């Protein structure tokens, strides 16, 4: 069954589109901008169709700023000036039309373009096998948080956990099993942290954990040891027990840097020099002689 597209319509110039082959559309006609705003708050439609003779007033309409975030917006103008049409597109409107007979096609294409844009943004910001934010999204989040820390100082830490063992699982059980193991590792990390902390996938064998605030640098070390120990515990994949050996690295703000990429490089470098935590693995000398809780035979 084809999807049904819900459209809010405002303005006397909106054509009848319910029977268009570009649909099917279900159209709700609104009597006022206030009614449109109320409908947008209740449940954003697939598209919003605005027919107006005063394009200059649209950018000042508060509901339009929210509408362009939540739905595909198409505007029908009577003899639109090129500058007005361009300004509306820059504001976030999907399309500006002078001919109302083209509305069904424009609405359907606007809906599809918006869906493709959302999928592209999700692909850009998400590591698909784990569902975690990816490298680019982590750096963006760190940049915003570091800007906040410049105004409201507070220590924070970035932990990198590189894991050995995924390649062996992919070779013996297949890539799908290796992806399952990565997902299970991601879930285990997420469950061990606060809601305010960020877990990201920064490569096929590496995770990053951003501690949004800590009381002291020692807290970052403690959390790093805890997460390494958690990842060292066996996972069940395809009916077999599988182990990962984590390499852990830490960078602290502001001691080790005040921008995202230098902090990430430092944490990655520390992880590369770190002896894997797990069975038969020793802690590096500068981290003290204490063994992790899971260093014993399982």
TrEMBL record:
Domain GGDEF: 154-287
Bias-annotated ranges (Low complexity): 279-298
Gene3D superfamilies for the chain: 3.30.70.270
UniProt-listed InterPro entries: Cyclic-di-GMP_PDE-like, GGDEF_dom, Nucleotide_cyclase, Rev_trsase/Diguanyl_cyclase
Disordered: annotated segments: 278-298
Signal sequence, renumbered to the chain: none
Protein name: GGDEF domain-containing protein
Record organism: Rubrivivax benzoatilyticus
